[in-house]
Amino acid sequence: MNVGNEDSIYREIEDKLNASDFIVRNNINRDDIGKRFKIDDILLNKYLGLPIFLVVVLGMLSLSFFCGQNCSRVIELCISYMLGYAGSIYWLANIIGNSFFSCFIMSIESILECSSLIFFLHFFLLLLEESGYISRGVFLIDKIMKKIGLNGGSFIPLITNFGCNVPGILATRTLKNKTVKMITILISPMISCPAKLPVYVMLSGLFLTGFKQSFFILSIYVTGIIIAFMFSKLLSKFFMKSNNNLFIIDIPSYCIPNIKNIFIISFSKTKHFIKTVGPFIIIFSMLILFLQEYPKGGKNNIDKKQNIEKIDTVNENINVETQNNNKNVDEYTNNEKYKNKYIYRIAKYIEPIFEPLGFNWKMDIALICGIFAKESIPSILKTMYTNDNNCSDIRSNLKLPVIISFIFFILFYCPCINTILAIFNEIGLFFTIFITLFYTLFSYCFSFFVYKIFSFFYF
Q1: Neighbours of 385 (CB within 10 A)
Q2: Could you point out which of 23, 108, 367, 433 has its C-alpha 20 to 30 Å from the C-alpha of 214?
């Protein structure tokens, strides 16, 4: 039993009680205290307090995402306008048309868009914190969070993950308990961010529609949350001592927030994110583009005559309708685009690893690119299977157990580069490598289990 730690906690409680007693005895700000208690009769009500807090937090997150998304659109329009204007200048046209320059610009755009979301999340969170309300919300949610081995302070970072894992992980800086912070960061990627939603929608739409599709997508989110809470409970039993999760909440007086200070602090935190994470995003973007574009020579530069002969051979060997012939030609052309590329070689090399899950090399390429941005997976799959982005080609080539297995693999597998860098920024290299490997292994085992179950019942 850590007696020293417990003694320090009780001393802190005693100091706060003495300070409160001093205020009451000396009649200091008695009117303010009375007003605070009247407001708290509602905001800390046994039955109304928690629903009000959840509504306020959801409103804060919705407002943050709304402002962040609109700011991202403005950034996107500004960059598009500047590129359009620069493209009209003769000597700049070739530079702008270069794929690596375009990748660099897209990386800058991605950093700024992510930064705008981080800025507004910090801004509105600090607004609630300085008003004195956030501490009351943490007090209300603390009892529930302790049932899964965390405390009330973990609630804001966890719910922020529904908007983006990066600010959710950065929000764990408010947690004083290192073990709680570590567990919160570990389970954060299990909560689906909006970048994964396009994958769920596109793939589930291959075999479900309407209410059934919505219910299936909701079940994916719920599965991630349940497993995250199970891991949290399990880890807390192994790594957290019984007295190590004592959580003291200082309930301050209500006050009007200082907007100027909040703006400066939010801007400072956003600037720190850009400086620490931004360069790595650009480097990894360039690396992925290099793998997709090179080598330029070799088998990829086949003469037009050879291409025509191969396409004719494909058409002659397939005795089907003309429409199906054209579709096979398109598929062959798409395959040729990736042949001899480094990313294709990597995908073919790891294909036997993912074969037990039912994945093919095209899905492997989507997974590799998805490490940088999960939202890019649908477009990559469509590009790999067809020229006209027709989802029916994916449906005809992939069976239901494979699609479901792939969806759950996306839910749990390696976090995106931005999230990995945010984790590295918070807890260091060793735990970042551990979390990356852990999620990759866990997603593999979970998807394998799902694939075998659905294969058994699928006829």
Answers
A1: 23
A2: 367
Cα 167 to Cα 174: distance, rounded to the nearest angstrom: 12
- Reference 295, options 249, 343, 260, 366; nearest CA is 343
If asked whether residues 293 and 413 sit together in one domain, one would say: yes
Q: Which two tokens stand for residue 150?
A: 């965390």
**What is the rounded distance in angstroms from the CA atom of residue 459 to the CA atom of residue 450?**
15
Residue 260's H or E segment, with its range, is helix 259-293
Place of tokens 């982005």: 389
Q: How many CA atoms lie within 13 A of 139 on its CB side?
A: 17
- Any domain includes 3: no
> What backbone torsions phi and psi does residue 150 show, to the nearest 5 degrees?
-110, -165
The secondary structure of residue 386, as a DSSP letter, is -
Instruction: Count the alpha carbons within 13 Å of 311 in the hemisphere toward its beta carbon.
Output: 19
What's residue 448's pLDDT?
A: 94
**Total number of domains constituting the chain:** 2
Please tell me whether residues 248 and 279 are part of one structural domain: no
Specify if 306 maps to a domain.
yes
Provide the pLDDT confidence category of residue 356 given band limits of 50, 70 and 90: very high
Decide: 281 and 113 in contact? Cβ < 8 Å. no
- Assign 322 a pLDDT band (cuts: 50, 70, 90): very low
Q: How far is CA 180 from the centre of its chain?
A: 20
Of 129, 389, 365, give the one whose Cα is nearest residue 262. 129
Give the C-alpha separation, 103 to 94, whole Å. Answer: 14
Any idea of the CA torsion for 47, 224, 200, 450, to the nearest 10 degrees? Answer: -140
What is each CA distance from 250 to 13, 70, 220, 303, 376, in whole angstroms? 10, 35, 37, 74, 44
Q: Which of 136, 158, 168, 139 is nearest to 232 (CA)?
A: 158
Same domain? For 163 and 288 the reply is no
Looking at residue 98, the DSSP 8-state letter turns out to be S
Are 369 and 227 found together in one domain?
A: no
pTM attached to this predicted model: 0.70
215 is a domain residue = no
Q: Are 240 and 309 found together in one domain?
A: no
Confidence of residue 450 (pLDDT cuts 50, 70, 90): very high
Claim to verify: residue 230 and residue 297 sit in the same structural domain: no
Domain that residue 173 falls in: 9-192+220-271
